[in-house]
Model the fold of this input.
Amino acid sequence: MFEAKPSIARSKREHYRELNVRLVALLAEESDGLANAANLTALFFHALPDINWFGFYLLRAGGLVLGPFQGKAACVRIALGRGVCGTAARERKTLVVPDVHAFPGHIACDSASRSEIVVPLLRGDRLLGVLDVDSPRESRFDAEDAGGLETAVKLLVDNSDFTSLTA
Done:
């Protein structure tokens, strides 16, 4: 079993580095994309401070469909280009949103969310889905979060089989 509690007195970058080392160990034992995404969500949700939702939306039939997550019940389907998740998926780039209420077309699944970061899951040029992370704190996410989460997503995609989960 993996302990996800953060160590005392370390930088955000070090914390992500440690989480990604733990993720590599989890991924070494399994290749199923669904199982690996579920373990990633549990590991990071319980280790990152000020997070109220952490999970995946997977590309299916031209839209995003809810995948493994931790947090309150969520929106099930999101169209490409809609909200932060759909926009990040369409643009295929990480979006850091300091204030979700200022983002045009924001989809409010949890009214407590104030900031959000979304990282696309890409295998080459192929979009597989997105990682979506919400916080009840405004301006919670920054470039260090983007880097740490992009590394986690790359590790997940490189070490997992998503062929049966996306279409």
The chain has one domain: 12-158.
